[in-house]
Design brief:
homodimer; mainly alpha; Serine Threonine Protein Phosphatase 5, Tetratricopeptide repeat; 2 domains; 16 helices; 5 strands; flat
Amino acid sequence: MFLIYVAYFLLIKSIFVHSELFTSTTHLTHLLNTEIELSKQLETYLKKEYERLDQVEKFLNVIKDEIRQAQGNGDYYFGNPVNAYLFIKHLTVDWYTVEETVSVEISKTMGDNWLFPSFEDYTGSAVGLMRLQDTYKLNTSDIANGEISSNFKSRKLSALECYDLGRIAYTSGDFYHTLMWMQEALDHLNTEPNNTAVNKINILDHLAYATSQQGNVEHALAVTEQILSLDPDHVRARNNKDHYEELIRNKRLTAGDDAPTLDLFPAMDKLDKIDIKNQRPQDYLEERERYEQLCRQNESKLDPKRAAKLFCRYRHNNHPYLLLRPAKEEQLLDQPALYLFHDIISDKDIEEVKRLASPRLQRAIVRDSGSGTFKAAEYRT
Amino acid sequence: MFLIYVAYFLLIKSIFVHSELFTSTTHLTHLLNTEIELSKQLETYLKKEYERLDQVEKFLNVIKDEIRQAQGNGDYYFGNPVNAYLFIKHLTVDWYTVEETVSVEISKTMGDNWLFPSFEDYTGSAVGLMRLQDTYKLNTSDIANGEISSNFKSRKLSALECYDLGRIAYTSGDFYHTLMWMQEALDHLNTEPNNTAVNKINILDHLAYATSQQGNVEHALAVTEQILSLDPDHVRARNNKDHYEELIRNKRLTAGDDAPTLDLFPAMDKLDKIDIKNQRPQDYLEERERYEQLCRQNESKLDPKRAAKLFCRYRHNNHPYLLLRPAKEEQLLDQPALYLFHDIISDKDIEEVKRLASPRLQRAIVRDSGSGTFKAAEYRT
């Protein structure tokens, strides 16, 4: 046994003849601690890296799906304002977030040939979406669920996306739309279990402020109570609660004794019963209402008696060319007279005109009625 | 139809009222190209990143497996010189490679508390492994297949690991071991389909040089022919081929007409029939052979007649203490007399002595017979 031990000992020793630092199994066992620490560090590193790449991959899948739907079909796809809004969002705020987690500067390596939309384009597309909502009197839920009409389908928006839209309205002081979209965000959040992308308190916080600005003090109080039930130490909510209670008390005093002596607490229970006002702010443009009516109008609304008087004809006006090949005229409206001429320009020529014109598209400018200078009008493209 | 088109047109336009750059579906369709390019760039980026992390994860799995086997079992695990070599390799060359692909400087963030072995430790452990191979006359294949003995099992080495061992021998001019390990690398490569970690030509190149240095010109020629069959334009192989052929021709001329007129071409076919010499280089240390014999010796070889004369006894030498508790003496050898005393120090005390001593372990130094100065000896630990 002893000799075997000696042999074993020599065997261990003899392998480290060159080594200066680590000449024994004792030293190797000490080094094993280095390896254990290293494996822990590497494991943490890998976990973080995979999480990071997972975020990038999720974004990649979103835009690949978008490309698949829009490619070769751009006019139809981007004709849906929800798609257009999401598309601009992906190339602005979402991409800014993803690029921060990508170690290579992809935007830069892509070079200057590739234009990216600006943050202003992003807010612009959101505000445009909301104006459209007013013009066509669209239900917020219908937009958020991708059901504007049977012709315009888009995917359902997430609670976070509804919240983002509400945030944009909020930032520009548009509490009318903030109220709609924060309420929508809240509804979507209830159908998204395990949602961690958006905080319910943040939604409620914006909702409370917007609804108070729209004059719903009781509703604001009820929402604030809801914040406090989730986070009893929420400082602003506590202060606001006192403020709203004070407002309600003053209102009752003004209303006199006739007002019902409503017990406010707990207001949360009555959330469903509160009648929420949400008045669209008065517009400075007088023609707005008629303009929007026109947009909503379609031919099916034309009085059948009037429609019966409209007809199609071949027109030549005795012009020699038109005698040979008369123009196809269709009367669309009598008052004002509105005609549609068919087959004047070939499809090929139309495409060519569009091709030549599209790079020169610019925003329309109008003369300001006050100063007389030309400027871009918010209501025009 | 026309009015619907007007409505559709207004609908598209009205959503981009704020946007300066991208106000039409035409522009959005152009932007789609940006998104397509972005998705391509991101896809390439993700692919590269996943490949990079895959390399790190493979390394992590190797060291985790090593830790699992060695932890709490260090003396036994590192007692196997193959394990010790691989362990040092993982914490040196392999880790250097992995760390280059890790964006965070993990070694630095781990701080100074964690020692890493040096590259010298790595080559030292490899040279030690080869010396052990000589001392115990171990078969290269047995080591490479993890079967040194029934007590010392380790995992099978890859072709790359055999090649790395051969490279270390080659770099230190040790063609005796280069020949063994390159031959072994070649054998392992044949059992590893789709191996891309090591290039067969690289192995053959080293093998040809080593075998020529060991005096096997015919073998060197055959191996060189094999390189040329894989890569007919291999410049060094073409030059070496001419050189080896010249050597063989000269040798025959010296040997005279008695030598068989062997047709050299193609030598490859005769690769199996060539008798390969591999003489261990002469050692400057006279005692080497006896020292190694001693290492290989074990008690079973002791002459039974001599062994019969060895016995155990209680020894007290009339010392009062030892009269009360005599020492347990076991005679191991008669000539020279070698005794083993049992139970002199308790196991606990042994551990304490080892614990105190191990931090002070240093390499043994010997007086140089030539210069008379003290220096570290290669053959001592």
